[in-house]
Design a protein that fits this description.
By secondary structure, this protein is mainly β. The protein has two helices and eleven strands, in the order H-H-E-E-E-E-E-E-E-E-E-E-E. A hairpin with a 7-residue loop joins strand 10 and strand 11. The longest helix is centred in the first third of the chain and has 15 residues.
């Protein structure tokens, strides 16, 4: 929800990640947090840049909002900023270097959001879920399809 505000208003994803990180720190103490890591591919290729956000699957029933950047298809969050054990919805964003086309009454010079490369099924309408397990490695391979077919999160020991 917060990220959508930043995305639609043209603010940076980094700002949204900072806000979520602050909120996550306020919601849960550092006890019980877990480190997480993984890889993200889109149509079989590592996602070069982007952002990954984890939000508790059932808000208000535990869990910690957290997120980080994706670089060269990889992401990692250390235990100090990581999520607490539980079920999470995963949202992945990766803006292209191209602005969305102008809408009616907009000129080509009107400030517009960048075109999102990842289908809505993995961000604004995400169906992707992961489980953070205490004491586990919590490493996932997230294989996204540009056709927005359901992705699978493979856990690797």
């Amino acid at each position: 929800m917060i990220l959508c505000f930043f995305y639609r208003t043209g603010k940076s994803i980094v700002g949204a990640l900072a806000l979520i990180s602050i909120l996550g720190c306020a919601v849960a103490d550092r006890e019980g947090r877990q480190s997480i890591s993984g890889t993200v591919s889109l149509d079989g290729h590592p996602l070069d840049t982007g952002a990954i956000l984890l939000e508790p699957f059932v808000p208000g029933q535990g869990g910690t909002f957290t997120g980080t950047t994706i670089r060269h298809g990889e992401f990692a969050i250390g235990r100090d900023q990581g999520p607490t054990p539980g079920s999470y919805r995963v949202r992945i964003y990766s803006a292209s270097a191209e602005q969305e086309p102008p809408r009616p009454r907009q000129t080509p010079n009107t400030r517009r959001p960048m075109v999102e490369r990842v289908p809505p099924a993995y961000n604004s309408q995400s169906t992707l879920r992961v489980n953070v397990v205490a004491g586990d490695r919590n490493h996932w391979r997230l294989k996204l399809q540009g056709t927005a077919e359901p992705a699978q999160a493979e856990s690797r020991p």
